[in-house]
Write a structure and sequence with these properties.
11 strands; alpha+beta; 508 residues; binds protoporphyrin IX containing FE
């Protein structure tokens, strides 16, 4: 697929990144105030040439110090600087402003709803919009596109992705996958320390199998024993991991730490080619079987892929790739998060098992999932880049600055949720008169799936996959935790540090 030389391609990519800095000089006021304080007077972390803000994060001498995750970093920044904190050019990105008051980021996010701009994945954007422009032919995806390009794609795929008959279409297949996963865990639990080291691999295999069933219309067989290294399932898992790791290196590490950036960049381009080729192969198979079908199918019974194929084959492949990009680690993380909280709260687990066995409702299960998502967000803070100037809390925030809502941190503050560090699913079920009632928190505090028209398009698929798995898992297995507390580490998004001390037993 590659025609230009490596140097040409890389040079064009780096030139494009400079556009952002030119854009910053423009002015376009959204809000007026008589005497707002200038942007430069916002307290926070200043930047030094070359190293950016890295010095603030050095152990012992840095103002913030080494932190394992964003949550811990937000605690320090909030305490030290107050409700509005500026971070200049952190990790060689645009300036960021952290807003710790929900009313403040609500003001900005709502004002940006017409064209919500969520930066990130700059190299993937370059891949789609420049390097492989002829392949994508005006189809840019959701995670990377902005403005009119994003809106056009989202408008096309929304009806297919948000189909009301999702459960009827996918629940039986997802339940088969859940059954395989629970059978697998039942076998693996007796194989010494295997799960301690490789539980994360297993949950990722389940998550890939589930999302590929929806997005590629196929059963990959990820949960089978003895898969060879070149099995599509292993390749797709590696692709997804490589995309995250390489993107992290390219976009978030301080400039001087981006060793061998050019080779990292070209490696990423190769991985993206490979993922696109695999998705195209599976989508073609679905198209073939639709063409060979003899009977007309009711519109409401058509799968997501069939609906996407009716728009355009490229749209179907692009959306499949988006699902593979955004729907594997996110679901695996949330599943581990919920499993962990159930394992350290045996009373909640028993109550959930009772509900599942009664077969009457999923109310408690849904509340458990909401509570797990409150405790640990996959993405610790939401993000919008200001497309115009805002005046917030008496300060000017210029266009081009990234406005961060530290939702995970806020979701653990006593002022929004009583006993915030306790896993209490009941807070999502009790009524207004109860002090635990979740509605006492500002509605913008807990946003695990993001905000507004640009929020997660896979939310209902994710919830369906997780609920179906837990119905089987908690019915059949009792899970406990035999080790020190599970730790979160933050890279592009949150993940968990090994090892995993889950203990699975047959449930009575
Ligand atoms: C529990 C699991 C998941 C969580 C917590 C999650 C969370 C999020 C968040 C926070 C965003 C950013 C929203 C914003 O900027 O307002 C997002 C976007 C997105 N998610 Fe998810 N997600 C999950 C699962 C999935 C799945 C299973 C898929 C695909 C099937 C998916 C596909 C996407 C896509 C394509 C976007 C970009 C949407 C856009 O920009 O229009 N996600 N997700």
């Amino acid at each position: 697929m590659r025609s230009s030389s490596v140097s040409d391609i890389y040079k064009k990519f780096t030139q494009q990144s400079l556009v952002l800095h030119r854009f910053r000089n423009g002015r376009n006021f959204s809000t007026q105030s008589e005497h707002p304080k200038p942007y430069k007077s916002i307290p926070g972390l200043n930047s030094l040439p070359v190293i950016g803000t890295l010095h603030h994060f050095l152990p012992l001498v840095g103002e913030v110090g080494m932190k394992a995750n964003m949550f811990e970093m937000f605690i320090v920044l909030h305490k030290k600087y107050g409700p509005i904190v500026k971070m200049e050019g952190l990790f060689s990105r645009a300036d960021m402003v952290l807003l710790f008051e929900p009313e403040h980021f609500e003001q900005v996010y709502k004002a940006e709803e017409a064209h919500p701009w969520r930066p990130g994945f700059e190299s993937l954007e370059y891949y789609r919009e420049n390097l492989r422009r002829s392949t994508f032919d005006g189809v840019y995806g959701l995670t990377t596109a902005q403005g009119a390009k994003w809106r056009e794609f989202r408008t096309k795929v929304n009806p297919a992705m948000l189909k009301p008959k999702l459960v009827k279409l996918y629940a039986p297949g997802l339940d088969e996958i859940a059954k395989e996963m629970v059978d697998r865990l039942t076998r693996l639990k007796d194989q010494g320390d295997y799960l301690k080291q490789y539980y994360d691999k297993e949950v990722t295999r389940w998550s890939l199998e589930s999302v590929a069933f929806v997005g590629l219309g196929t059963r990959l067989g990820s949960l089978n024993d003895g898969l060879p290294e070149d099995h599509p399932s292993n390749i797709l898992i590696k692709c997804s991991k490589d995309i995250m790791d390489l993107t992290f290196k390219l976009e978030l590490l301080p400039r001087f730490l981006k060793f061998f950036t050019k080779s990292t960049f070209m490696k990423l381009m190769d991985v993206l080619d490979l993922q696109w080729e695999i998705s195209t192969r599976y989508i073609n198979e679905v198209r073939k079987s639709i063409n060979e079908r003899e009977n007309e199918m009711l519109e409401e019974d058509k799968s997501i892929i069939e609906k996407l194929l009716a728009i355009d084959e490229k749209v179907a492949v692009m959306m499949a790739n988006e699902m593979l990009l955004a729907g594997i680690d996110t679901v695996a993380f949330t599943t581990t998060n919920l499993l962990y909280h159930l394992s350290i709260n045996p009373n909640v687990q028993d109550k959930l098992r009772e509900e599942i066995r009664s077969g009457e409702t999923s109310r408690y299960l849904k509340a458990c999932l909401k509570e797990a998502l409150r405790m640990w967000h996959v993405i610790p803070g939401n993000l919008r880049r200001a497309s115009k100037e805002h005046i917030v809390g008496g300060y000017v925030i210029p266009r081009g600055v990234d406005v961060i809502a530290p939702n995970e941190y806020l979701s653990r503050l006593e002022k929004y949720y009583p006993q915030p560090n306790k896993f209490i699913p009941e807070r999502w079920l009790v009524d207004k008169t109860d002090p635990l009632y979740h509605g006492r928190a500002h509605p913008m505090v807990t946003l695990p799936f993001g905000f507004g028209v640009r929020s997660c398009i896979g939310r209902r698929i994710a919830e369906l996959e997780i609920e179906i798995l837990f119905k089987r898992l908690i019915n059949e297995l009792k899970v406990s935790w035999e080790g020190p507390p599970l730790k979160v580490v933050s890279k592009l998004m949150n993940s968990f540090a090994k090892p995993f001390y889950f203990k699975f037993e047959k449930a009575e």
